[in-house]
Structure formats: C-alpha cells, structure tokens
UniProtKB/TrEMBL annotation:
Residues 19-189 form the N-acetylmuramoyl-L-alanine amidase domain. One of its GO terms (biological process) is peptidoglycan catabolic process. It is an enzyme of class 3 (hydrolase). Keywords: Cell wall biogenesis/degradation, Hydrolase. This is N-acetylmuramoyl-L-alanine amidase. One of its GO terms (molecular function) is N-acetylmuramoyl-L-alanine amidase activity. The keyword Cell wall biogenesis/degradation applies. It catalyses: Hydrolyzes the link between N-acetylmuramoyl residues and L-amino acid residues in certain cell-wall glycopeptides.
C-alpha cells in the first residue's frame, strides 16, 4: 500500500470513491483508527448517502471485501460523535475525577475530553481515520436495542490488510484502534465481530 500526497491509497485493492463533502478540513496527524458499521445493507446505499452528507468515514468495506476510499487520510471526517471518557473506561482517573466526569452531560464530557491529547483521551474526528463495514442493525425480538449483523470473513480480511497498511504508512500506534462504541455512545454490538 502507498499513500499519495493527496492522502489517497494507491493499491489495486482500494477503489477511489472520494466524496468531498465528507472532508471537513486538514488532519495533520493521525493518532488512531475507529472501526464502524454502517447500519445499511449495501455499500451502494452508503456511497450514495455520502454524496450529500458531511458525516461519514474515510473507508468503506463491503460485505464481499470490496474496499472504497471516500476521503483523504489527510482530511478530518465527522465519524466519531461525542467522546466517552477514556480515563473512566480504563479506570485510570482518581475517584473524584471519575465521579465528576460521570456527572457530566455527554456534551460537557465531550468538551472535557477534547481538551486532552491522545492517549489521555480516545482519538476523535480531529485525529482519527474512520473505517465503515457494511452491516445492518436489526431489531431482535426480546431485545431493547438493535443488533448489528456479523462482519463477514471477507470484510475482516480486508480490515486487517487496511489497518496494517495504514499503521505502517502513517505510523499509527496499534493501541489506538477502537470499535466505535468504545469511544462514543453507540449501539454496543456495532463492529463487535470485527477482527484486526
């Protein structure tokens, strides 16, 4: 894998489907990767939605493993949402600080976390690459929340390849790769079957 000066991956395994509206400004340093699931059943529907949206990820991996790049890795994308507290999740804060953070609204907590640097906080839109895996969230009888369908073997194979290449090319620390629900308040099953 090579990344050109525009931040686009040059490799036969990646189809370039750049969506300019997704790019929200320069991202000089990449500190992490966030793995998502789309909530949709096809790559075509996600690619179509990216035409008119400012929310989306840098990469999209279809169920058959076909991989699309939709934004430059040198550009921010809105893909994370409001951050969870990393020190609370990892039991690294003092009890008083944890109590204060837990009492915050999601918006206040997000501002509090945004003032920190990685690794004191999770990577966010300012410094992370988003990878979306096509997969629906389906409401299962007897469960309060929808459950995301399992990631396919082809998606996992391409996810491993893509993460390995991005980490090597952009010098991303592998400890800074997370599933979306780890870093933000999302459906817990999102990307739960993704492996890298």
């Amino acid at each position: 894998m090579l990344i050109n000066p525009e931040g686009m991956v040059i490799d036969d395994q990646v189809k370039l489907e750049r969506r300019p509206l997704l790019e929200r400004g320069p991202m000089p340093t990449v500190r992490g990767i966030i793995v998502h699931q789309t909530g949709s059943s096809t790559a075509a529907s996600s690619l179509a939605s990216y035409q008119n949206s400012s929310t989306g990820a840098h990469f999209l991996i279809d169920k058959d493993g076909t991989t699309y790049q939709t934004a430059s890795v040198h550009q921010r994308c809105n893909h994370v949402g409001k951050l969870r507290s990393r020190c609370v999740a990892e039991h690294a804060c003092a009890p008083r600080e944890a109590a204060q953070i837990n009492a915050m609204s999601p918006t206040t907590r997000n501002r509090h976390e945004a003032a920190k640097d990685v690794p004191a906080r999770y990577p966010d839109n300012r410094d992370s690459i988003g990878i979306e895996l096509v997969g629906r969230a389906v409401l299962v009888a007897g469960q309060a929340e929808a459950q995301y369908e399992s990631v396919t073997a082809e998606q996992n194979r391409m996810l491993v390849w893509l993460i390995d290449g991005l980490c090597e090319q952009l010098k991303i620390n592998r400890t800074e790769i997370f599933r979306h629900p780890t870093v933000s308040q999302k459906t817990p099953s999102e990307a739960s079957t993704a492996r890298w």
